[in-house]
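Priority: medium. Attachment 1 of 2:
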């Protein structure tokens, strides 16, 4: 099953919106935990699809040199995010 880049970008935007809504809702809201569970499910589904479909297809399309460069960039970026 091919994944549409527009779909992925839309989901990333939706996740940012969801985080904003959760932050403004506040943990004392009666439906906060329900919204957190919904958010967790959305993120889990999205991450699974990326890990199982998008990233393997992307990696397969790269040359050995391109893959090494992307891996290096991701590792460096991950270091700064930690």
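Attachment 2 of 2:
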């Amino acid at each position: 099953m091919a994944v549409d880049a527009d779909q992925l970008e839309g989901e990333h935007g939706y996740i940012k919106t969801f985080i904003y809504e959760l932050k403004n809702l506040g943990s004392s809201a009666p439906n906060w935990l329900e919204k957190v569970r919904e958010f967790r499910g959305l993120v889990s589904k999205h991450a699974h699809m990326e890990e199982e479909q998008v990233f393997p297809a992307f990696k397969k399309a790269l040359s050995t040199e391109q893959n090494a460069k992307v891996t290096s960039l991701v590792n460096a970026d991950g270091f700064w995010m930690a």
